[in-house]
């Protein structure tokens, strides 16, 4: 969805490096999410934010941190990358008020991260 | 803890056949069950969703069947086409409070439809 953009799209880094993944959205949604996707494990929630002042841990937050710089921007950081953080990372947004209460989530195109 | 279990992990069907993907959940507080479709190189996108007050929802060739007592729901793709080849995720969420809107996803099913 072009309304949710992620940078970079691909990144190769080394163990111990700090890395930041960025997400921007033009949908005007308050809610933003970071997921990682691994084969056979599906999508797992890392962090989520329901507004600029609200940050919450998901099920796999260890080793990650986030920053909600503005309504439209939500960044994910790996403070010291390790190989098992190699995965596909997705940002998503939602606004239950505009989706009939169904809270449809709109995903970005993903960032493929490889930690050597 | 995986609260939504999805099967099979991969599925191959012939064009025109029926594709069936199953999900089972544990949390009886779940009240919204969407299916997302993901094409290679893209993010997942909502395909179809159901609430537990109905047992079936149909949109074109896609149908969700829901069995509240068994805590199971499934996606049926009728007349499967090669363009349906994608990864499918079931999901579930709970109402209200600070958890509202959080989705718990299944493990995903890679569907391949042969011409």
End-to-end Cα distance of chain B, whole Å, is 38 Å
Give the radius of gyration of chain B.
14 Å
Pair with the biggest interface: A-B, 28 and 23 residues
**Biggest beta sheet summary of chain B:** 6 strands, mixed
Helical stretch tally of chain B: 0
Distance between the termini of chain A: 29 Å
Q: How would the global form of chain B be characterised?
A: globular
Binned strand content of chain A: over 45%
Q: Mind telling me the C-alpha Rg of chain A? A: 14 Å
H-E string of chain A: EEEEEEEEEEE
Are there runs of chain B of 5+ residues with pLDDT below 50, and where?
Answer: none
Number of strands of chain B: 11
State the share of residues found in helices of chain A, binned by percent: under 10%
Number of helices of chain A: 0
| Assembly state (oligomeric) | heterodimer
Low-pLDDT residue intervals, each spanning 5 or more residues of chain A = none
Written as H for each helix and E for each strand, in order along the chain, the element string of chain B is EEEEEEEEEEE
Structural features:
heterodimer, A: 116 residues, mainly beta, seven-stranded mixed beta sheet, four-stranded antiparallel beta sheet, 0% helix, B: 115 residues, six-stranded mixed beta sheet, five-stranded antiparallel beta sheet, 11 strands, globular
């Amino acid at each position: 969805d072009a309304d949710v953009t992620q940078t970079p799209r691909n990144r190769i880094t080394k163990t111990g490096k700090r890395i930041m993944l960025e997400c921007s959205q033009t949908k005007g949604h308050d809610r933003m999410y970071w997921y990682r996707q691994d084969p056979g494990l599906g999508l797992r929630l890392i962090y989520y934010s329901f507004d600029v002042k609200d940050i919450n841990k998901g099920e796999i937050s260890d080793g990650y941190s986030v920053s909600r710089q503005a309504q439209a921007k939500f960044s994910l950081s790996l403070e010291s990358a390790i190989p098992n953080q190699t995965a596909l990372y997705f940002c998503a947004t939602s606004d239950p008020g505009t989706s009939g209460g169904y809270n449809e989530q709109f995903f970005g195109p993903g960032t493929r991260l490889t930690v050597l | 803890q995986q609260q939504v279990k999805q099967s099979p992990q991969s599925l191959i069907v012939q064009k025109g056949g029926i594709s069936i993907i199953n999900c089972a959940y544990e949390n009886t507080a779940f009240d919204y069950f969407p299916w997302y479709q993901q094409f290679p190189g893209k993010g997942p996108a909502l395909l179809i969703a159901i609430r537990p007050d109905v047992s079936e929802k149909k949109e074109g060739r896609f149908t969700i069947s829901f069995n509240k007592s068994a805590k199971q729901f499934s996606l049926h793709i009728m007349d499967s086409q090669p363009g349906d080849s994608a990864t499918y995720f079931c999901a579930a969420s709970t109402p209200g409070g600070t958890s509202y809107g959080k989705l718990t996803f299944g493990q995903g099913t890679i569907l391949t439809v042969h011409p």
